[in-house]
Amino acid sequence: MNVVSNLMNWDPVAWMSILMVVMAVVIITFLAFKVAALIKQDAAAHKHQKP
User: Fold this and answer.
1) Cα 9 to the chain's mean position, in Å?
2) For residue range 12-42, what is the model confidence (pLDDT) as tens digits?
3) pTM of the entire structure?
4) Cα–Cα distance between 18 and 24 in angstroms, integer?
């Protein structure tokens, strides 16, 4: 119980900092998957082209 009550006493700036870091990690992960999908799509499109 002490850990829970200790977390509730943090100031809002600390919570917002943690939230921003979590959001940045989510956005970077999302963009990494999007870039990987675009690279795969581009590779498939170039596979059908003749030199």
Assistant:
1) 28
2) 888 899 999 999 999 999 999 999 999 999 9
3) 0.68
4) 10
Mean pLDDT across the stretch 38-47?
Answer: 90
Distance CA 4, CA 31 (A): 34
What stretches of 1-51 show up as alpha helix (H) in DSSP?
Answer: 2-8, 12-47
Helix (H, G, I), strand (E, B) or coil at 49: coil
Q: Which amino acid is at 48?
A: H
Question: ∠23-18-24 over CA atoms, to 5°?
Answer: 20
Q: Check residue 50 and report its DSSP letter.
A: -
